[in-house]
Write a structure and sequence with these properties.
By secondary structure, the protein is α+β, with helices and mostly antiparallel strands. It contains three helices and four strands, in the order H-E-H-E-E-H-E. Helix 2 packs antiparallel against helix 3. The chain is elongated.
Amino acid sequence: MADENANRQETLLEFPCDFPIKIMGLASNDLAQAVLTVVVKHAPDFDGATMEMRASSGGKYVSLTCTVKATSKPQLDALYMELTAHPLVKVVL
């Protein structure tokens, strides 16, 4: 019970919840597929058709928004770690 309370105090989120993740990188044909592969690995029920994509005004960068069904803080931490480590990804918010 003490561990459960400690985990609950680490985050203000109540799981499960819909959690939007914004990923930014250089505009590339491979970015969306690479992000989708990583997201589905950590959130298998994610529907790629719901991914939102927006190009920067100059067209050099693109932002992707993926709203996943988050089930735990460790799940989100692992997803963020893998996305930020990907060579095509510049920023994850």
